[in-house]
User: Which sequence fits this backbone?
């Protein structure tokens, strides 16, 4: 339990950050996000650099103004997206060269340039350029990527100090460090030591949830998160499913982001207190109950499963609006319950109760 | 200027009815429609009969409850959709046999069955089954379709009287008649006489805007609308563009529906006080002004053309949400201005002023 302060507002942790890759949390307006209790969203420097591009962001006054969102924004540097480009990218000591997935144009991201662009975006929390090794990955390859991440971390920090000061002496942006080391605990522990030596405002665990079995992810989490500085925010990147969040909170993680609630919503999968539900399927066709009887969100107060299923089958945009809205509201409510249970010193009880119903559907690990 | 009263609320005319074919006005929630001043929407019996079907509508308590819309609904019978099916339909005296455009299944709509289904939907304004001749069309073919429309009109009326009473003695649904006769004025004048002899709660002009030149549509309108009963609502089906609405209001039309504002929105075309604007295009890329500086809608208060163009290019659902929202708000505002100008006895002035700016872009007739 804690609070992260930014000039765009305070964030109560543990917090889930909806993903707004392309300057929009898919299907949602900022007002709707506020209505369900979203305090911070995630943007992506890689995507925004390619489209709409630096010039449009500059002209429109930064990302907050561009997308009409006045609360905090954390922006990822795009390191992970570039890593995912495979043959379209080449990593050198200078930085990451890549071809745009949109038009094939060539670009170079350096530790300096990603900081500069995120300052232009006006991010409240800036993420550094890192190198994320794939899974599976040999020890040497993982070590090389981790070492480069450390060297880049120093350059990220230096660029941040210079640029934040020159752009705005009162700049209140924070810079986080990203722990790498693949699935090798000693590499990750060293990464933590190196990053804390450099000194960041918060620490992220990168390179998990990249295809490894859940057991390995949980092991890494358990052996890494508790070693991060206790007085700084700890952020588990790209996670998670409700069960993963509960596991990570137990080990001290404060911040999460994941496309799952919005992506699943678009394929007709919704979250309920009794586990995930595929609302596309036939059993919902004549079901006049809401998605989740225990949920008090706008969608569950006003619409039946039958109607939402109809919309999805008819390819109506309102269908994915409603499933997205509900799934995000479900996540916000989960985080609220987690914070309350921590405050009331009964987190482990809450975790057990929630999981007992959540995994009763037998779909654990598939969401 | 007038008011149509229904148990779901009153409707000030002239009115534009957004189209909600599949139990949703595309991309919009009912609350958003209320916010922009929508007092009545249009549903479609053909589409709803095929999906979700009678059983789901029955179980969920009718269309209002199904889609969470508490204001009036006019439902079209589906005559026009069946007519548009071409080879997939066959008209006999009994009714219209057709194959579903969704799964190829066979169905029969009769003047009686369309009334029954619309009563199940709980429509406030029920439309009869008519036969809409194509354009161009010979005189004899037009006369045959018009005559059948009249014979069906009698059966529609009889079914309505029987069913409305048996379903609910206090039923407050209205039944309209539909004038046919293609582009032959004498056929249309006779159609009006025949329908007024039967007696309906309102009268619609069908079979216009089916591909004929605007001059012909305007001629038909001018020579038909003024002959409809003055004390009943007059409804021009499937129209229209702002310029068509202004023309029709001049000749006494009270009600309109058209997919144009929502359909154009989805292709990135928006309405402004200075005429239509293709917001997809390059000139909007760095344009920090709203869609329409004179519009006070949620979209124009909060978003730039640059942002909306970005969303559309990035295939983000919020893009079509914002363009749809604005286009419908623009139409609602146009209708409000029309009603005010009639009240202030300066409608012809308003028409002239509006058109002078609207057609200045030289795109009249293309929207």
Assistant:
């Amino acid at each position: 339990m804690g609070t992260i302060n930014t000039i765009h507002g305070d964030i109560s942790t543990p917090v889930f950050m909806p993903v707004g890759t392309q300057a929009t949390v898919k299907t949602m307006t900022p007002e709707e996000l506020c209505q369900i209790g979203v305090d911070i969203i995630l943007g992506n420097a890689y995507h925004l650099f390619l489209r709409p591009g630096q010039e449009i962001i500059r002209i429109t006054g930064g990302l907050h103004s561009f997308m009409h969102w006045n609360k905090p924004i954390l922006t990822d540097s795009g390191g992970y997206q570039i890593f995912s480009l495979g043959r379209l990218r080449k990593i050198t000591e200078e930085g990451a060269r890549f071809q745009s997935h949109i038009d094939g144009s060539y670009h170079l991201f350096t530790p300096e340039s990603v900081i500069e662009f995120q300052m232009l975006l006006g991010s409240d929390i800036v993420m550094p350029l890192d190198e994320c090794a794939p899974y599976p990955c040999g020890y040497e390859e993982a070590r090389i990527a981790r070492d480069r991440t450390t060297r880049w971390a120093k350059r990220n920090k230096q660029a941040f100090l210079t640029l934040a000061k020159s752009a705005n002496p009162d700049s209140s942006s924070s810079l986080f460090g990203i722990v790498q080391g693949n699935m090798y605990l000693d590499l990750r522990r060293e990464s933590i030591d190196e990053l804390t030596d450099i000194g960041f405002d918060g620490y992220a665990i990168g390179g998990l949830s990249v295809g490894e079995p859940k057991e390995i992810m949980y092991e890494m989490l358990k052996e890494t998160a508790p070693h991060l500085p206790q007085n700084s925010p700890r952020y588990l990147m790209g996670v998670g499913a409700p069960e993963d969040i509960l596991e990570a909170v137990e080990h001290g993680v404060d911040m999460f982001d994941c496309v799952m609630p919005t992506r699943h919503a678009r394929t007709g999968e919704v979250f309920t207190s009794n586990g995930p539900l595929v609302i596309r399927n036939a059993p919902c066709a004549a079901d006049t109950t809401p998605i989740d009887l225990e949920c008090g969100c706008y969608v569950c107060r006003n619409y039946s499963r039958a109607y939402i299923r109809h919309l999805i089958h008819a390819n109506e945009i309102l269908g994915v609006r409603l499933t997205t809205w509900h799934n995000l509201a479900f996540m916000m409510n989960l985080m609220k319950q987690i914070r309350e249970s921590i405050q009331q010193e009964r987190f482990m009880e809450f975790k057990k109760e929630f999981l007992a119903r959540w995994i009763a559907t037998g779909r654990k690990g598939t969401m």
